[in-house]
Amino acid sequence: MKKPQIKCAVVDDSPTQRLAITNQIKKYCQLELVGVWNNAIEAKNALLDVKADVLFLDIEMPVLNGFKFLDDLENKPHVVIVTGKSKYAHKAFDYHAIDFLKKPLRSNRFGTAIEKVLQVYNSKSNIEPNTYFPSIFIKSGTKQHKVYLNDILYISAMGDFAKVHLEGNNSLVITGTMTYLESLLPNKKFFRAHRSFIVNLEKIENFTTRYMEIKNETIPISRQKKQELKDILNYM
Q1: Which residues pair with residue 173 across a beta bridge?
Q2: In this structure, are 19 and 121 located in the same domain?
């Protein structure tokens, strides 16, 4: 069966950047370009009638910036942040961005972002809900590393990177957002305890309302997640 195309849209006030992004999107047969808008107000109005699965979104735009634009959307699509300012990387995690791209765009780095988009949607279409495989492949450097899920202790955010902490004091540093990694992991086994941490539920040794411990490492629990975590652990 042919996979449905992923509907993509671009919101950027720079004509040069809009062209660069749209040209990249058109290289992938699984992506369909459904909208290109030069400001957030125009995009907000258009999205009342146009469905987009993924937005390639600039932040600093006149009248309404990218983050406020996302706040105003009732049905929020996935987003890839595209901006010239590194200072927005941390805030991008709050909006569950699949990836964070810094201008000027580089073709190979943009290709990596597209791979993440495809992996998020392919995993959704190919895997039944609440099922998972015992291992996944994670790219670190130039290699794809096979990682057994039972070996993952937790994952921590490191700006534009993430660190996968493994049994035996091993770890892998990868390029990617926490939302991207979260999409690869089964939600019955892993939990986003904080915007900067994903934990293996089976590895939690003790917890309070604010922190948990895994292998003597203290990991914060966000206020919004503490009751959900407590309910899950009590159920387990």
Answers
A1: 163
A2: yes
> Is the pTM above the cut of 0.85?
no
Q: Which residues contact 113 (CB under 8 A, 6 or more apart)?
A: 80, 98, 99, 101
| Distance, CA of 3 to CA of 5 (rounded, Å) | 6
CA dihedral 191, 195, 198, 204 (to 10 degrees): -70
Instruction: Please indicate, yes or no, whether residues 154 and 215 belong to a single structural domain of this protein.
Output: yes
| DSSP string over 105-134 | P-HHHHHHHHHHHHHHHHHHHHS-TT---S
160 Cβ contact list (under 8 Å, min separation 6) = 89, 100, 175
User: What does the pLDDT look like over 46-98, one tens digit per residue?
Assistant: 999 999 999 999 999 999 999 999 999 988 899 999 999 988 887 887 787 88
